[in-house]
Design a protein that fits this description.
- This protein is an alpha/beta fold.
- Strands 1-5-6-8-10-12-11 form a seven-stranded mixed beta sheet, covered by helices on one side.
- Helix 2 links the parallel strand 3 and strand 4.
Length: 313
């Protein structure tokens, strides 16, 4: 049974229905009949915009055949002025093909800050945070970290109902997931600063000390969610967080916590001209992207960082 197309959408009105729908997701994640023996390949693209054009991807990414990948995971900040013009989403659709539902997109701040973020939901036909299941035991939780409260940000008390709905979605997934082999959490802004070594603190473009999930300052991601992720890890579900707000200070991030949880990140910036470099850009190392290979029969998920230019041939 293939469940790659099933989704649960979070919103500010219907989250109370998640329990019933996630029960179906739980049952589907345990089905192993008729799985393809072929290894699946997923590509993750963090911060992939063209620094010289606010409405395009890095030109090298336009040359990739995305039909060769079973999943395309977008790590946010896809175009620097993405929703300002409706034709930008049409351009992305032509490249990535949203229609076959293989594109998963965790929104970055540049994806929503210029104009009309609702255009993304309409084009993708889903909300900005959701959960989907991939054949062979992967539960994929896609977050909208723009809804998180990065402490000291202003204004503080906005979109409270939507923030609460995303929190309820996260909690529902953690409460019901049992038979999956992996929980993969896609996010843009950095999470879990307190669980990263000092030497790796600067990899993400921002790495806040505390991340709040709702308008209640006590609802901190690290305090409430991380212990539950550890419990899943202890029960044999491999937890992997993949972030896309990377590329300005490092091209890759990879760290396994003492509890066994993997924290990954990937991003690019080589389209930026050095003479235009802002202060927060500290590296022009060759760009890398993150490639995952998933065996749905053996229920294994492996990954590697690959030079972007190597994919152009």
């Amino acid at each position: 049974m293939t469940v790659s197309g099933e989704r649960v959408m979070g919103n500010d009105k219907g989250w109370i229905l998640l329990w019933a729908v996630l029960g179906v997701l739980f049952m589907a994640s345990g089905c192993e009949k008729d799985l393809s023996a072929a290894t699946k390949t997923y590509i993750f693209l963090g911060h992939p915009y063209d620094w010289n054009d606010g409405y395009r991807l890095d030109p090298r990414l336009e040359k990739i055949n995305y039909a060769e990948y079973d999943q395309v995971w977008l790590g946010g900040d896809v175009c620097s002025r993405l929703t300002e013009r409706p034709e930008t989403l049409d351009y992305l659709d032509r490249l990535l093909d949203f229609s076959n539902e293989h594109v998963q997109w965790t929104l970055g701040n540049h994806d929503v800050m210029f104009g009309h973020p609702e255009r993304i939901s309409r084009k993708m036909e889903r909300e900005s945070y959701y959960v989907t299941s991939l054949e062979g035991g992967i539960t994929l939780l896609v977050l909208n970290t723009n809804l998180f409260w990065m402490y000291n940000s202003r204004p503080e008390q906005v979109q409270c109902e939507e923030r609460q709905a995303q929190y309820q979605l996260i909690q529902s997934v953690l409460d019901t997931i049992q038979r999956s082999s992996h929980l993969v959490i896609l996010h843009h802004h950095a999470l879990l600063k307190n669980h990263k070594p000092e030497a790796l603190q600067d990899a993400f473009n921002t790495n806040p000390d505390a991340v709040g999930m709702t308008c209640d300052s006590s609802d901190q991601f690290d305090r409430l969610i991380y212990p539950q992720l550890v419990k899943l890890q202890d029960h044999g579900i491999q937890v992997i967080l993949v972030g896309g707000d990377v590329g300005m200070r490092a091209k890759r991030f990879e760290y396994q916590t003492p509890e066994g949880i993997w924290l990954l990140g990937s991003g690019i910036n080589n389209s930026l001209k050095k003479e235009n470099k802002p202060d927060y850009v500290t590296t022009f190392a060759p760009d890398e992207v993150l490639i995952f290979r998933h065996d749905p029969v053996k229920r294994t998920l492996q990954w590697e960082f690959v030079l972007l230019n190597s994919l152009l041939n």
